[in-house]
């Protein structure tokens, strides 16, 4: 009797598992394809590796002094449930690197809080300017984003009339996007899910 | 009669459970306090934020000189946390990360070494002594008892306790297939730690709370402590690891009087009266606390005693003795 009921459970479990597999796989693929606009915290592995390693403990959010790290519900697929993300327009990353230090699984790599280390290893995304929206490019001197940038002359330089020029060293922290006085913002971070 | 100190262990356990649960509630408030400190803007806080700030300040000021830094010492939950520089993780977290990533990441595995060691020695001690869900489930069980006494028809179904090993196995396979850590979504202690943090510091309870409430309802209406006994993948892992634990509760047949209070007290539906503990016992010590003759106590033993028969202080044993004596007398 006992053994039979065990077999029953096993068969039921196997059927449920097999039936739900394709939908799990789909949701995982969908997330890579749609890439809705969010950043992972600094030092995150490439998206697939990140999802496979993040155990959803929430410690990165708990140490973030800027409360920039938020957590997904089901809006980004089942695989992303309870994983950390950053929307820079709401609260950008200040590159304090505490989240990587506290992450137990290496889903966020520990990166020292030093200029060279940060520029070399943090790859959240890359800022891009819309010259039609940007006040400086329209002749009205602004320069707020350049002032907000934590990596001046590495991530961003300023041209004539304080026009922002994004450079190769941009790590995608999003402080420029957060500080932009235009609505919608005229400078935005394009997330890099491959962190390449 | 000199009574054993071990009957007080259950109170100690409740203290421990309350401390863990209380800490999980306190930590998000500490986090908020730290962010307020970091932003240097007390005057811009809302009245309720000021309340958090002031209460946390009065709580920490006597002990800490630099709370913004020093409060970093304790972070996280029972799923994975930092305790004064020591990183500790749930062994189930290691299992799920290893199966999802198909790779062993040693710094993380080492964080589970201490819990693992304790589990090998004490068995499912985490379930009984630390798990924040147990705190809620045991109170829930008390509620169920009152409801039953009030006459509500509450089912106490028994299922196959091996079901949870299937949950563990299938969960690991699914994690490997999808490359996502799935246990975190269905493992109550992980859910509770996270959801308390969400509720206090992020912006309200998430979906995990709904899942947890459903498990409470399942325990209440369908099966007593059903989730821990039949579903929980962490419980399954600990039961497997603690199969040959060294510390286990055993019955002393010489002082047992067959009152069966232990069997009623055991929320896991085990059978202490007939020496039926097994790997499922979570060392909650409720049976030790209710035993009127101190026949139950922890012993250093790698294996359970097989059924030792009726307790020597009980009627059944006395009758057996009398009949065997009579038989001997007749023989002579």
Q: Whole-number average pLDDT of chain B?
A: 91
- In this structure, how is the largest beta sheet of chain B organized? 3 strands, antiparallel
List the helices and strands of chain A in order.
HHHEEHHEHEEHE
Biggest pleated-sheet summary of chain A = 2 strands, antiparallel
Separate helix tally of chain A: 7
**Overall pLDDT of chain A:** 86
Radius of gyration of chain B: 24 Å
Helix content of chain B: 55-70%
Report on this model:
The complex is a heterodimer of chains A (196) and B (332). Chain A has one domain (36-191). Residues 29-34 of chain A have low confidence and may be disordered. Chain A has 196 residues and is of the alpha+beta class. The longest helix of chain A has 33 residues, at 2-34. In chain A, a hairpin with a 5-residue loop joins strand 4 and strand 5 (164-166). Chain A is 34% helix and 10% strand. In chain A, the strands form 3 sheets. Chain A has a two-stranded antiparallel ribbon. A two-stranded antiparallel ribbon of chain A has the order 3-6. With 332 residues, chain B is mainly alpha-helical. Chain B has 2 domains: 25-239, no CATH class; 246-332, Alpha-Beta Plaits (2-Layer Sandwich). Helix content of chain B is 58%, strand content 6%. A 3-stranded antiparallel β-sheet of chain B has the order 1-2-3. Chain B has a two-stranded antiparallel sheet with strand order 4-5. In chain B, strand 2 and strand 3 form a beta hairpin. In chain B, helix 1 packs across helix 2 (47-60) and helix 8 (132-149) packs across helix 12 (207-221). In chain B, 41% of the residues are buried. Classes of the chains: A alpha+beta (196), B mainly alpha (332). At the A-B interface, helix 1, helix 2, helix 3 and strand 1 of A face helix 1, strand 2, helix 4, helix 5 and helix 9 of B.
């Amino acid at each position: 009797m006992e053994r039979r009921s065990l077999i029953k459970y096993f068969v039921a479990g196997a059927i449920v598992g097999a039936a739900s597999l394709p939908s799990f796989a789909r949701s995982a693929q969908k997330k890579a394809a749609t890439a809705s606009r969010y950043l992972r915290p600094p030092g995150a592995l490439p998206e697939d590796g990140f999802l496979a390693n993040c155990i959803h403990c929430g410690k990165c959010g708990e140490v973030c002094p800027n409360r920039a790290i938020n957590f997904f519900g089901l809006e980004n697929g089942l695989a992303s449930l309870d994983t950390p993300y950053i929307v820079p327009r709401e609260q950008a990353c200040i590159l304090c690197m505490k989240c990587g230090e506290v992450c137990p699984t290496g889903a966020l790599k520990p990166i020292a809080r030093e200029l060279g280390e940060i520029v070399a290893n943090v790859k959240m995304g890359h800022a891009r300017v819309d010259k039609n929206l940007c006040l400086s490019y329209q002749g009205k001197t602004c320069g707020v984003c350049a002032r907000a940038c934590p990596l001046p002359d590495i991530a961003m330089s300023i041209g004539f009339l304080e026009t922002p020029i994004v450079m190769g060293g941009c790590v995608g922290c999003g402080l420029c996007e957060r500080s932009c006085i235009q609505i919608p913002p005229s400078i935005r971070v394009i997330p890099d899910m491959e962190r390449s | 009669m000199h009574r054993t100190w071990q009957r007080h262990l259950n109170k100690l356990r409740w203290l421990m459970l309350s401390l863990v649960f209380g800490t999980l509630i306190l930590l998000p408030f500490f986090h908020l306090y730290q962010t307020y400190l970091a932003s240097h803007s007390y005057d811009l806080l809302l009245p309720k934020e000021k309340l958090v700030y002031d209460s946390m300040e009065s709580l920490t000021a006597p002990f800490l000189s630099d709370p913004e830094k020093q409060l970093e010492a304790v972070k996280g939950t029972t799923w994975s946390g930092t305790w004064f520089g020591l990183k500790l993780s749930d062994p189930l977290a290691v299992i799920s990360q290893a199966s999802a990533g198909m790779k062993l990441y040693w710094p993380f595995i080492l964080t589970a070494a201490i819990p693992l060691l304790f589990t090998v020695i004490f068995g499912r001690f985490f379930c009984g002594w630390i798990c924040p869900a147990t705190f809620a489930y045991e109170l829930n069980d008390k509620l169920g008892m009152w409801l039953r006494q009030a006459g509500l028809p509450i089912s106490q179904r028994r299922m196959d306790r091996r079901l949870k090993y299937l949950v563990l196995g299938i969960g690991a396979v699914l994690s490997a297939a999808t490359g996502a850590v799935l246990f975190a979504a269905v493992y109550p202690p992980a859910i509770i730690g996270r959801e308390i943090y969400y509720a206090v510091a992020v912006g309200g309870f998430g979906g995990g709370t709904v899942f947890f409430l459903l498990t409470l309802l399942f325990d209440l209406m369908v099966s007593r402590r059903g989730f821990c006994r039949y579903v929980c993948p962490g419980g399954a892992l600990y039961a497997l690891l603690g199969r040959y634990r060294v510390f286990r509760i055993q019955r002393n047949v010489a002082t047992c009087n067959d009152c069966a209070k232990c069997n009623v007290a055991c929320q896991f539906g085990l059978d202490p009266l007939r020496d039926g503990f097994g790997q499922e016992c979570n060392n909650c010590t409720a049976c030790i606390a209710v035993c009127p003759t101190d026949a139950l106590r922890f012993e250093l033993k790698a294996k359970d005693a097989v059924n030792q028969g009726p307790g020597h202080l009980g009627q059944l044993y006395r009758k057996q003795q009398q009949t065997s004596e009579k038989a001997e007398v007749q023989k002579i």
